[in-house]
Amino acid sequence: MAELSETFAALECHNLTVRFDGDDRIVTAIENVSLTIAQGSFVSILGPSGCGKSTLLRAIAGLVQPTEGTIKIFGEKPDTARKQRMIGFVFQDSALIPWRNAIDNIALPRELGWIERMSANEPTPTELLELVGLAGWEKAWPRELSGGMRQRVAIARALLDQPKLLLMDEPFGALDEMTRERLNGELRRIWAATGTTVLFVTHSVQEAVYLSEQALVMSAHPGHLLANIAINLPRERDHALRDTSPFTHHTAELRTLLRAATPAS
Q: Do residue 171 and residue 251 come from a single domain?
């Protein structure tokens, strides 16, 4: 892949609106969303259920077509960025093939031709499994892996083609709190090691603060961008950070914004 110019933001959305035709009405999922994300940053998206967080990610990935507005990924349209192998996607469900072991699940996109033949500087599936902390589990079947381990395999698969933008849609949402916290630390480590720009959807305020340099808060009905908050915490983070005053300040700020974003029942 050609080197990307540093003059481009990793992601630019301008007045993005997505509407869906329902049985008897048109539903506006997101409306007039504009944002810019710098290369190499880690950004989380928070908001109430139904505010369009997942729709926004799918529009960025080119899986949903915008009704209005524009999206640029490193200066390219989503379809072009996908063809140029710039985008990776991790869903809440790891979606591993049950009859393929861990290493074969990671290699699957290349076998199916979704990703071109590996070049000399690209990591192998074995190297990616080591990157996500699963060295020695190459031959394990999905049924033999915990939920957190399956998500690590899914992350390794998404990193197979060295995407410049990694989209993550609540990948740890179904995990218990302790596993989730441990994987938050692992994800920060992987992000630092790869330099990939990450856009991460979550319902957890603590997760957003721990992981991110920037947090976007969306409001519902229809979904729009309510706030863009800088997370001013050290780049090197550990679990003890969650008990510090700067951390609790950020979580309190985001919770206040989320209360304002959540419709009264």
A: yes
